[in-house]
Each structure stands twice: as structure tokens, then as C-alpha cells.
Design brief:
By secondary structure, the chain is α/β, with parallel strands linked by helices. Helices cover 30% and strands 18% of the residues. The protein is built from eleven helices and 15 strands. Strands 1, 2, 3, 4, 5, 6, 7, 8, 9, 10 and 11 form an eleven-stranded mixed β-sheet that branches. A hairpin with a 7-residue loop joins strand 14 (365-369) and strand 15. Helix 1 packs parallel to helix 7 and helix 7 (175-189) runs parallel beside helix 8 (221-246). The longest helix has 26 residues, at 221-246. The chain is globular.
Length: 418
């Protein structure tokens, strides 16, 4: 374990020293995403770390992601919807497809945009935007350093670690802990943006090391998931404590809802699949619950504004709307958010419309176009029907519902545009 940590420190510190854009003063930002943390599972298994964030940070309860991890990461990286014609990442990245998110072209990644403005970025942890043999893919996206595991893992104690484009097999080290160590070292190295992507609490469900969870040794998947969540919570506490020490602000969110056995609806456009929670924390961030509608691709414009770029050129985060003003209590700019699922990356979803499930929602209402029902819209009142059991019948619409229905239909046309 010590040897692995020392290798990590040497790699990241050397990369920072070699980077001409490494900064020694604020602003600095820690961007953290966790995997498959559904709101229902977190609510059923509260953790002290998240209670602390609720008390001292700003919580966004209507934060929209893709219902799968790859398109969420892609949208965050490029600031565009998954069906953007230059991205077309709306499903899983895995064999037999050879799809990877583009490293060159008209779109500009967040790390590339920061580098062009004189800021450095390090990526730690799960990548999942390319196949596992593309070891330099994070650096090609503009990160000055990458230290992590590119794909999902089959064992949290044995995995292929990649650093500086070189892969090494690691055994006996708990992945969640190492990802925390990586984030801490990257912050100590002075990168302006440190992006940490945890594999937890994604399958396989397992027993974390003793000391990272309480209670008896778990035996069921749900109990193991609960232990994984507690271990993640403890490690997040350690990471954010270091962020405070090094003067970093925090944005933290889950990439999608949890699996069904943990009370979520991952892989679907139900609210439990694509509506997760985001927390922001740091100097100047007003604590409280923020009702603003926020999409994952809004992180792009928010990060750039955080680093001093209030406006971005075309093709830099073209679908992204900064939520940075909401940190001071200003109302969010969005009137609706959008999510989609389409299982063929690299293809235009419009060519196979019955394979494309997409939703758009306002604060209260939600419109869905489901597979096999291209011409049939399902309209829900989330205030009265939060689990989306019964769509409203068109003949029963009141005045507010009728106007919102028309508004969301037009919004859906916008998001479906080429």
C-alpha cells in the first residue's frame, strides 16, 4: 500500500512540476462524482458526511444526469447533451463497440478549455470514456495527469492501475481508498481542477476493509452496498477535509441513480434513474437547499465561470448553463432539464427512434417519449405522482397543465435537434 501511494505521489507531483500552467493560488476546485449512488438508498442509509454537506453546503435536489454512467461523464466533459452530433454518447462504452469519446474535433473538452485559459487539471479514478486499452485517452482529453482505472472493475482489491499511460496490475489495495489518496495528492500538487471519479458504490458489491464500515460482516448485496456507502462516506470525509486544507471549493454528485436492488432505477429515465443530488461547498457558497433545475452538462460552464470565464465561445459547452450564481442564492436559469437513453453509441438516435427513450421536465411536470411510443407522450405530475405510476390523460389537463405540456413538447423538439 505504501509503495503504491509513493508511486502515485511521485507521478502527480512530477506532472505538476512539469506543467507550465500549474497554479499556486486560488481559485481551485475539487470536482467529485460517485457511481450509482441513488437518492433512495442514501436516504435509507444516512451518513454523517452527507449530513455535514447538507448543513454546511448547498444541496441541489433536482440535478439531472443521464441514466447511465458513460453519457453522464461525456456530457460533463464536453458540456453538451449526449445526442449532440459531434458526441453521440448516449449508452454504454464497452465491447463489441469500439466507440470512445472524441479527442479531437469541433468540441472542446473541459480540461482542454481550462488549459487554453492557463489552468491545469488532473483526473483521478474511474474514466469510462474509452475502452480499457486506450491508456492515454484522459491525457488526450487535456488532463495534465491521470491516475486511475479506466473501466469498471470486477474486484475492488485487484485492478489495472493506469498512470502516465502505463498500466500496472494492483492487488491488495482497496480502490476507494486509493482514489481518495490520489485526489489528496493531486490537490497537494496544486492542480487548479482536481476531478475525482469514484468507482463506488458500483457493483460488484463487496465487504470493505475493517474500519471503514460498522456492524457485522455483510452477507447480502444490500448489506454490502450499505457497507460500501459507509466506506465511501468516510473516504469522502477525508478527501473534503484535505480540500479545505488546500483551499479547494467542492462540487459533488452521483453519476446516475442506483441499481434496482438498492432502490434505484438505473438504466431508465424514471426519476430514480436520472434525478440525483449535487452538493456544492466552499467559501462564498450559501448553505441550504436549492430548488434550481441543473443538468450535468451545466458543470462545464460553471467550472469555466468559476475560473473567470463568464462567457464561452461556440462549441465550448454549447448546451451548458452556469449555475455558479446560485451559490449566492440567485435563482437558477433553467426552466427545464432533459435526459435520454440510447444504446448505440456513435450512431444518430434519430435513425432508430424506437430505441431512444427521452424525457424533459420542469419543476413539477415531466414529459416522456418512450421506446415503441414515438408519437405518444406520457405526461406526469411529479408533485402528485413522484413515482410516475399514472400519466395524466390529455382530456383531463387543466390550464396550467395544458400550457406546461405544450412548453415541454417544444423543449423536447429543441433537445432532439440535429
Amino acid at each position: 500500500m505504501l509503495r503504491t501511494y509513493l508511486v502515485l505521489a511521485a507521478v502527480l507531483l512530477a506532472s505538476a512540476a512539469d506543467s507550465a500552467v500549474a497554479q499556486t493560488s486560488p481559485p481551485r476546485l475539487l470536482l467529485v462524482d460517485v457511481d450509482d449512488l441513488g437518492d433512495a438508498f442514501l436516504a435509507a442509509n444516512p451518513q454523517p458526511f452527507f449530513h455535514a454537506l447538507d448543513a454546511y453546503g448547498r444541496r441541489y435536489d433536482t440535478f439531472y444526469t443521464a441514466p447511465l454512467c458513460c453519457p453522464t461523464r461525456a456530457s460533463m466533459s464536453f458540456g453538451v447533451r449526449g445526442n449532440h452530433p459531434d458526441l453521440q454518447c448516449t449508452g454504454l462504452i464497452r465491447l463489441p463497440s469500439d466507440y470512445s469519446t472524441p479527442t479531437a474535433g469541433r468540441l472542446v473538452t473541459l480540461a482542454q478549455a481550462l488549459a487554453a485559459r492557463g489552468f491545469s487539471a488532473a483526473k483521478i479514478g474511474k474514466w469510462h470514456l474509452s475502452l480499457s486499452d486506450q491508456l492515454s485517452h484522459p491525457e488526450e482529453h487535456g488532463y495534465a495527469a491521470y491516475f486511475g482505472v479506466i473501466p469498471n472493475v470486477n474486484d475492488y482489491y485487484a485492478w489495472p492501475l493506469v498512470y502516465n499511460g502505463v498500466e500496472t496490475q494492483v492487488t491488495g489495495t482497496y480502490l476507494t481508498k486509493l482514489e481518495t489518496d490520489g485526489g489528496i495528492v493531486a490537490m497537494s500538487a496544486g492542480y487548479d481542477l482536481v476531478s475525482v471519479s469514484y468507482h463506488a458504490i458500483h457493483r460488484p458489491y463487496h465487504v470493505p476493509p475493517a474500519g471503514l464500515y460498522s456492524g457485522p460482516v455483510p452477507t447480502t448485496d444490500v448489506a454490502k452496498g450499505r457497507a460500501m456507502l459507509e466506506a465511501l462516506s468516510r473516504e469522502l470525509g477525508r478527501l473534503v477535509s484535505a480540500a479545505q486544507l488546500f483551499g479547494y471549493h467542492l462540487i459533488l454528485f452521483s453519476d446516475n441513480g442506483g441499481n434496482s436492488e438498492l432502490g434505484g432505477a438505473k438504466g431508465t429515465t424514471l426519476e430514480k434513474g436520472c434525478n440525483t443530488t449535487m452538493w456544492c461547498f466552499g467559501a462564498g457558497v450559501v448553505p441550504g437547499v436549492d430548488p434550481s433545475l441543473v443538468s450535468v452538462h451545466d458543470i462545464y460552464a460553471t467550472v469555466l465561470e468559476f475560473f473567470g470565464s463568464a462567457a464561452v465561445p461556440p462549441l465550448e459547452g454549447v448546451d451548458s448553463v452556469s449555475f455558479l450564481p446560485t451559490w449566492q442564492g440567485t435563482s437558477g436559469a433553467r426552466t427545464h432539464v432533459y435526459a435520454e437513453k440510447f444504446m448505440f453509441n456513435g450512431e444518430d438516435p434519430r435513425l432508430k427512434p424506437t430505441h431512444w427513450d427521452r424525457v424533459v421536465r420542469s419543476e413539477r411536470y415531466k414529459l416522456r417519449r418512450a421506446p415503441g411510443h414515438v408519437s405518444t407522450d406520457l405526461f406526469f405530475d411529479l408533485q402528485l405522482d413522484p413515482n410516475e405510476f399514472q400519466p395524466l390523460a390529455p382530456g383531463s389537463f387543466g390550464a396550467e397543465q395544458a400550457s406546461t405540456y405544450l412548453f415541454l413538447q417544444n423543449a423536447l423538439i429543441h433537445w432532439e435537434r440535429p
